[in-house]
Amino acid sequence: MRYFFLLFICIFISNNVNAQIYEVGVFAGGSNFIGDVGATDYISPNQLALGILAKWNRSERHSFRASVIFSNLEGIDAKSDDPRRKERGYEFDASIVEISLGMEFTFLEFDLHTIGRKGTPYLYSGITLTNHDNYYFSTNGEYTSENTNSWAFGIPMVLGYKTNITNQLILAAEVGARYTFSDELDGSMPDSEDREALSFGNTNNNDWYMFTGITLTYTFGRRPCYCNF
C-alpha cells in the first residue's frame, strides 16, 4: 500500500511538473507596414522592432505565449511601385506597442526534457492589441497629429523555426503578419468623426504590419520526476 501511494504521488507530480516548463526571453528584428500609404512589399523590414516574451510549454507540441513588442511603422509613398502613390508623396511614421497572447504549435515534438539538439518549425496565432497615436493628412497633405491614441485589435499569423543551442537557451527565427481590425494606423482614416471627409484609400481594407526577427529564450522549471523502487 505504501509503494502504491508513493507511485501515485510520483505519477501525479511527474504529470504536473512536466507541464511546468517556462521560457522568458527577447525578440529583436524589424517591422514593415502594408496599408494605404507607402510600399506594399509583404516582407521588407525597415524599422527596428524590440520586445520581450514568455511561454508556458504545456506539452511537447504546444505552448501558451505572451509578448510585448515596441516598434515604429513607416510608410513612404516615394518607395512604392504604384505611380499614383509616388505622385501623391505622402509619408507617415508612427510608434506602436503591441501586446500579444496566443498559442504556439510545433510541427514536431519539442521535448525540452530530453538531451541533445532538437529543432522544429512552428506556428503561432492568437490576438494582438496595438496602441498607436492618431494622425490624419490635411487637405494640403501634411501629416498632422490628432493628439489622441487608440488600441487596435488584430490577429497574428506567425511562422518560425526554433532550436536549442544549449540545454537552457532556445534560438528561433520567425516572420509574422498582423491583420488589424483598424484602418487608422497610417492616418488614412482619421479617428475623429469630424475629419471623416479627409479619409482616403481603400476603406474596405484594414491595415497590416509585419514583424521579422529572432527570439532568444531561457528555459527554466523542474524536470519530470522519475521514481525508482
TrEMBL record:
Domain DUF6089 as annotated: residue spans: 4-228
Organism: Winogradskyella thalassocola
Name assigned to this protein: DUF6089 domain-containing protein
Keywords, sorted A to Z: Signal
Entries under SUPFAM superfamilies matching the protein: OMPA-like (SSF56925)
Signal sequence, start to end: 1-19
Superkingdom of the organism of origin: Bacteria
InterPro entries: DUF6089, OMP/PagP_B-barrel
This protein's record includes keyword Membrane: no
